[in-house]
Design brief:
heterodimer, A: alpha+beta, OB fold (Dihydrolipoamide Acetyltransferase, E2P), five-stranded mixed barrel, 6 strands, flat, B: mainly alpha, 7 helices
């Protein structure tokens, strides 16, 4: 049976889209390292960047690690596996807090401290009123940086 | 199904839907705006800045959904040559572009106080900007040809090619690490959960409904205009052709 022109166009467009998707997937996989916005302390430890390399690092600000002297601030970024000490001079964003996500751009110093040129706060996807947050903290269901199960249905 | 490919039949249906969509749009915005901007609680971290989310998130979702509709209509046009499908795609494009632009602008206004920067080139922001460029490119390409049908076909191909960007936008925050936060909809073994508390979800969903009703209303109005434009064009062509035919006939004599 001969294919109608409509059917032929349908198959042609379907195949072309499939090819396009496969091509895009390959390109995105190949450029994986350039698409990620920041590296975690574990990735930094594995990559061992030289002081001349500019990069962004990110993770959670470790609780109790923030030290301020004048406009210079130092803190520890953690991904719960590895940590990285960061030094920065300048104004921090409003959402910069211990236990919250942060992304810093800069380079590794000779002493292993990350010298940040810019610090951005990374906000997570949990939205709730203050009362709910306080109640969660009180009941001990709060997790720093993770999803504090605000609207999660009880699993048991 | 192909019965509705007839523009006259479809427009009769669309015109019947129009007053309901317009009414729903006014009603839902009347509820959603005070709820989102005033009556809902402030966020524990962001304070009142969270209210930008109620405008930003529906704009982002609609921007992507309208592009999906445009791409599906473009495929229908290319395969079955239904004029109605081309009409829907052409009418939807500028509305989707506005939603996308609104998403980008509100996102920047939120990013400055929260992140500490208006813009970064992470995967989510970059792919969303690409979506805006695809809309603009689609609109420009559709008008770039002397022959309207050629322009429509070229634009339809662009819309289809650009559709690979939609899953990239949606999953960008999961495939790569980004500055942009993850999706508020989380899939796990037990189903879907939302990371927004119920008293903030209510204004968000009301606003979402208002956006959808707004889109349907404007889409039908724009389709009416496009149909009238096509009629005017056809009338002009017949009018312009009439004396030409006469001259040709005279020359031939």
């Amino acid at each position: 049976m001969a294919m109608t022109r409509k059917r032929r166009r349908l198959y042609f467009i379907g195949l072309a889209l499939l090819g396009l998707c496969a091509g895009t997937a390959l390109v995105l996989t190949a450029f994986q390292d350039n698409i990620v916005f920041f590296f975690s302390p574990t990735e930094v430890a594995a990559k061992k960047p030289t002081p001349s390399q500019r990069l962004r690092i990110g993770g959670l600000v470790e609780a109790g690690s923030v030290q301020k002297t004048g406009t210079t601030v130092s803190f520890v970024v953690t991904d719960n596996a590895n940590t990285l000490k960061v030094a920065y001079t300048g104004i921090l964003p409003d959402l910069f807090r211990e236990g919250q996500g942060v992304v810093a751009e800069g380079h590794m110093g000779a002493d292993g401290t990350f010298q940040a040129r810019e610090v951005l706060a990374k906000h997570d996807e949990n939205y709730m009123p203050r009362e709910v947050a306080d109640a969660l903290k009180k009941s001990g269901r709060w997790q720093d940086g993770g999803a504090p199960a605000a609207t999660e249905a009880p699993s048991n | 199904m192909h019965k509705y490919a007839n523009p006259t039949v479809f427009m009769r249906l669309a015109n019947a839907v129009l007053p309901w969509a317009a009414g729903a749009c006014v009603l839902l915005f009347a509820v959603a705006i005070p709820l989102a901007l005033y009556a809902s609680p402030a966020d524990y971290q962001q304070g009142d800045t969270v209210r930008i989310m109620y405008i930003h998130v529906p704009a982002a979702i609609l921007g992507e959904m309208v592009y999906g509709l445009m791409a599906a209509a473009s495929a229908t046009y290319l395969i079955w040559r239904h004029q109605l499908a081309a009409l829907i795609a052409r009418a939807a494009a500028p509305i989707g572009a506005i939603f996308t632009a609104l998403c980008l602008i509100t996102g920047m206004l939120w990013g400055q106080p929260m992140w500490g920067t208006f813009w970064v080139w992470d995967a989510r922001l970059t792919s969303m900007l690409l979506l805006l460029f695809l809309y603009v490119g689609y609109l420009a390409l559709g008008d770039a040809f002397e022959d309207q049908e050629r322009g429509e076909k070229a634009a339809a191909v662009l819309a289809l090619v650009g559709s690979v960007n939609i899953p990239i936008i949606i999953f960008s925050v999961e495939w790569w690490n980004t500055l942009h936060q993850g999706s508020i909809f989380k899939m796990n073994g037990e189903g879907m959960k939302v990371t927004v508390s119920p008293e903030m979800l209510a204004p968000l969903f009301t606003m979402m409904g208002a956006y959808v009703a707004f889109f349907v209303t404007i889409l039908v109005l724009r389709m009416r205009i496009e149909i009238l434009n096509a009629k005017i064009r056809n009338a002009r062509i017949t009018q312009a052709a009439a004396p030409m035919v006469a001259t040709q006939a005279a020359q031939a004599r």
